[in-house]
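Notes from the 1:1 (GR / supervisor)

We went over the backlog. Supervisor wanted to see one worked example end to end before approving the batch request, so GR pasted a single chain during the call. The sequence is below; no edits were made to it. Supervisor asked that the structure be written out right there so they could see what the output format looks like.
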Amino acid sequence: MERPLLSLRATLVLLLAVLAGVGAGVLAGVAGEGTARSVLCGLAASGLAVPFFDRLVGPAERPGGADTAGAGAGTGGEGRG
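Structure output shown during the call:
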């Protein structure tokens, strides 16, 4: 079986970014902006949405082990008597 072109996580992030960009562009168009400004607004929203949704979806799973992003970080209540 061949590997997919994009992982499921990357596909979800890009899909959400495109939907955010389309929504922003449509709202700009409804607000009375011209076509060019609406397209630019949608592109800018898509560009800003990619890092946002990338962090929102969470880190990708590491093959062969648990995620270690929070390793060593205490809860703040440990060791207090």
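Supervisor's comment: The chain has a mean pLDDT of 84.
Batch request approved.
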